[in-house]
Amino acid sequence: MAIYQIGGSRMISYKELLKKSAQERGNCACLGLDPVQNALPYNSGHIGEDLKRFFSELFAQMVQRDLIPAAFKPNIGYYTLFDKPREGFFAGSQALGELFNLLEEHFPGIPVILDSKRGDIALSSANYCSEAFDLYRSAAVTVSPYMGSDSVAPFGERSVEGKGFYLLNRTSNPGAKDLQGLVVVDQVDEKELYPLYMAVAHRIGHYNHEWGNVGAVVGATNLRELEELAAYYAYREIPLLIPGVQSQGGSAAETLNILQKVDYPLFLARINSSSGITHPWKGGSVPSDWVAVSMTKLANLIEECAL
User: What CATH number does the domain containing 132 carry?
Assistant: First the structure.
């Protein structure tokens, strides 16, 4: 069985890590960690310190209340936003590195998915791959499939070693239909017409057969398409990362019902919510009991994603 290392600890392959963490936590929830500065409860003028304090308090309460999801997903753009490279200021990137350290300290054995949606070719793609797996030591990463197999290959090589990666398939944003819903002739079967997202699914199935540990990002905002894709992935045991619940309008409970309907292996799914949990007051003032508010939202997500 392929294995990899996180923080010097020997770990099993990504699919087995998904299964183990879901079984141990009893849920398939994923907590997105995408901080917005004006929604933070602290404003010391030092963003790195504010983020560390915010996450430290949040994580301590999660451990104390035993409200632990089966995965975490920080989006890299919410951190590098705070960098000022031309001034030699990298507080955002440092905060992301510190976040990985905090997650490893508080939640050992829970996979961390770096949401960076990288996609390039040759050495550029290999560099992005190293960024996720060597610099941040994430368990998995999100990747754009639209430059083809030579773009995806460096991630595939690492997945053979046990790392995981999720290819964008049918995303949760409204504009996804502009391209992902286009009808195309699928290369897998040139006699058949499919929406582009289904042709991409066929390619993901091929990659997973070749490399293993390959997953798909499929949003919870279109249940008909989610059902179609989950049914295709079910017996292939392809991991699903499912964003779009709560603040984007999707329902974790409805999503879980869809997965159960098509006999999808729930331990491979991760149903993600981000701002709807970490700062549901976004756009308003931060409540004095902000930790309790976040814990209530997280408890609801974990309950809806119970296995």
Answer: 3.20.20.70
Residue 284 lies in a domain: yes
252-261 vs 290-304: helix crossing angle, rounded to 10: 20
CA distance 101 to 66: 20
pLDDT digits (tens, 9 = 90+) for 32-87: 999 999 999 999 999 999 999 999 999 999 999 999 999 999 999 999 999 999 99
- pTM of the entire structure? 0.94
Distance CA 183, CA 161 (A): 35
**Catalytic residue check, 73:** no
CA-to-CA distance for 50 and 58, rounded, in angstroms?
12
Name residue 113's amino acid.
I
Total structural domains in the chain? 1
What is the spatial order of strands in the sheet that 140-143 belongs to?
A: 72-74, 29-33, 269-273, 240-242, 214-218, 164-170, 140-143, 113-118
Asked whether residue 40 is domain-assigned, the answer is yes
Q: How far is CA 150 from CA 144, 146, 147, 208, in A?
A: 12, 10, 7, 15
Using DSSP, state whether 296 is helix, strand or coil. Answer: helix
**114: closest CA among 136, 130, 91, 93?**
136
Asked whether residue 8 is domain-assigned, the answer is: no
Residue with token string 């010391």 = 44
Phi, psi of 66 (to 5 degrees): 55, 45
From 15, 19, 73, 117, active-site residue: 117
Residue 90 lies in a domain: yes
Cβ burial, residue 291 (10 Å; 0-12/13-18/19+): middle
**What is the residue range of 18's domain?**
14-304
Where b means 16+ CB within 10 Å and e means fewer, 192-203 reads: eebbbbbbbbbb
